Predict the 3D structure of the following.
Amino acid sequence: MIKLSDFSTRAPENLSKSQIKQKSKEIYKKIGELQYILAAQKKHSILVVFQGMDSSGKDGATRNVFSETNTGGVTVFSFKKPTEEEFAHDFLWRVHKQTPSKGMIKVFNRSHYEDVLIQRVHKWIGEKTVDARIEAINAFEQHLVRDNNTLILKFYLHISKERQREKLQERIDLLRKHWKHNPNDWEERKHWDKYMFCYEDVINRSEIPWHVVPVDQRWYRNYHIAKIVLEHLEKLDLAYPPLED
């Protein structure tokens, strides 16, 4: 049973920031090289899910980890409040059409898990619906793995409450970050304990495991995620396709 309070939000002590950043650059390059083969082979697809509290660094992680990939081979989708049309369908309808085709890497900035997180925190859905949706999510992800050869990597970006406050305040204090400021982020912060409960429940009931990533220090966040992505890419049977007759 995973308890998020058991996980540090900071990098291990005695690590050299400069050395880790250099290693990260090397890993980014390797990810780019393997992504090129992935796109050429068109045998596997990869879905990367980033979930976390506001200001945990979902955009930054995406920008850094995939900085050396071909822009045509990696796409990002950010899930917002469902539209009227999306509300008229089942909750996974809008998700399925965003999943990656073979040869592609798709990054979900927030994801289908929003439907068992924010909606549960605010009690817009009941616990029976939560149970049904978690069951549906597990089946949906297994379907992608089984029928589309999709590798699913799920990352919970683990930020401390104090560090989040600092990052949200920066959006008020720094001119270059004003565009990121959303007063509602401060309101959601008031539900911190409820969010932690819901995240823990989702992580523990998920059939495909989550990776809990310390994100208080951005340089370590990027390295931690990139290292996991590379390790999984290297396990795939990636190879350039032969010349056709």
In short: The mean pLDDT is 96.
